Amino acid sequence: MADLPTGVPMRLEPLVTRILAPNASAYTYTGTQSYLVGDTDVAVIDPGPDDPAHLAALRAAIAGRAVRAILVTHHHRDHSPASRPLAVATGAPIMGAAAFEPEDGGARADAAFDPDYRPDRVMAEGEQVAGAGWTLTAIATPGHTSNHLCFALEPTGALFSGDHVMGWATSVVSPPDGDMGAYMASLEKLLGRDDRVYYPGHGDAVDTPQRLVRGMLGHRKQREGQILRLLREAEQAVPAMVGRMYAGIDPRLRGAAERSVLAHLYDLRGRGLVIDHPRGKEETWRIAA
């Protein structure tokens, strides 16, 4: 996967072609993966960043075919900005995740919001878009973001999982838009499906999706257990917990780890298991009495 060239169309199966964007980073792995779905006409899933080279690669892969829809799984700037110039170039509608305006001014630890994302059509659970020989169904999977969608390619058993389930790492869940309780519920939802393969926004295709999702659920429950054990020892702040929980973490990812721990704490607080205690500029947490 690390040697995959950017901008080169790769046919993954008869109706699915992948094009890698040149935006590799600590948060995007080798880059954002855009997908073309279809043969005689196509949908584009997650067109990626507004990068001229990537847009040229997408247009070359489309090769003059009709584009029925530009589908966006969520509103992060490594997934949605190219939707606008691609819509101008192809005349296709932008569809999928709802637009979102952060209430906290946009303070984030993972990929930043795309403030200009405005879909022509918001898709709800079960809504579909179709072309010649293919149908894509929206699957609501909030958690990584409040508006995250996956898209199921009917009836092949392929699921485009965006950043909800990735092929290289677990998703960052960053409040207030990210919600750990919703994320866990969305994982449980996917566990109840019988998809054959996941095509994620980042990383390799997942050919044992149910096993991976079970592992992700177990990992999050393990993190929750770590947090509760630490708070039983003493009241403490998130940075101190991260220092204990993520030994040896890449310093570039420490902020993301702190956001995910905070998401767990908000979920635990909502369930009445922990209490937050503001102490000047630093918030501490303790076990609920």
TrEMBL record:
InterPro entries: LACTB2_WH (IPR041516), Metallo-B-lactamas (IPR001279), RibonucZ/Hydroxyglut_hydro (IPR036866), Sec-metab_biosynth-thioest (IPR050662), WH-like_DNA-bd_sf (IPR036388). Residues 31-202 form the Metallo-beta-lactamase domain. SMART domains: Lactamase_B. PANTHER family: ENDORIBONUCLEASE LACTB2 (PTHR23131:SF0). This is MBL fold metallo-hydrolase. It comes from Sphingomonas aurea.
